[in-house]
Amino acid sequence: MRLVQKIDTRGKRQGFTLVEVMIALTVVSVAVYMLSSTITATMAHSTARKERTLSVETAMNVLERMRAVPFEELYLLYNDDPDDDPDGPGTGPGATFQVPGLEPREGQQATGFVVLPSLEGKLRENLVMPELSLPRDLNGDLIIDAADHAEDYRVLPVQIRVEWRGASGDGHLKMSSMFSAVQKQL
């Protein structure tokens, strides 16, 4: 079958056969598909990178704000009990925060969390929390016990967690730090 075929006076054909047109269309279709797939993947990667950058910057900002407050108030300001804030109930930043530009995961109210070694409102040394290098002596008495050390801690391990629902699925970031009374005095 010939789509277009003209025979000139010398006997040569002009135009394309139907098979040649089909092959050309197939090649163009594959090229367009590959190009659109590349563009889509690049856009998804760019969005994921932006989300990750937002989470890292916010976590670092939270740690910097923590460094700026008096060491002895750190636990009271950033634990999950708003009633023990130094300037009155609900005046501290607390244990959760929002990351502008990121959506919380399903069932969560916040995107950011300050994780401290506490249980039932008490700062504890004997918790098993490998992400905070616990159990560990927090008050420097060389004893690891189950007492509340909110009043006498000398070191305070902290983890900042950011969890969000992103364009390419759930994202998460964990950043840890260790604050100490000696560090604040320098």
Walk me through the structure.
This protein has 186 residues and is of the alpha+beta class. The chain has one domain. 33% of the residues lie in helices and 20% in strands. The protein is built from three helices and eight strands. The strands form three sheets. It has a four-stranded antiparallel beta sheet with strand order 3-4-7-8. It has a two-stranded antiparallel ribbon with strand order 1-2. Strands 5-6 form a two-stranded antiparallel ribbon. A hairpin with a 2-residue loop joins strand 5 and strand 6 (122-123). It is rod-shaped, with a radius of gyration of 30 Å. It starts with 5 loop residues before the first strand and ends with a helix. The model has no long low-confidence stretch (mean pLDDT 89).
Summed up, the domain count is: 1
Assembly context of the chains: single chain
Poorly predicted segments: none
N/C terminus separation? 89 Å
> Which shape, going by the Cα principal axes?
rod-shaped
Order of adjacent strands in the largest pleated sheet: 3-4-7-8
Order of helices and strands: EEHHEEEEEEH
Helix content: 25-40%
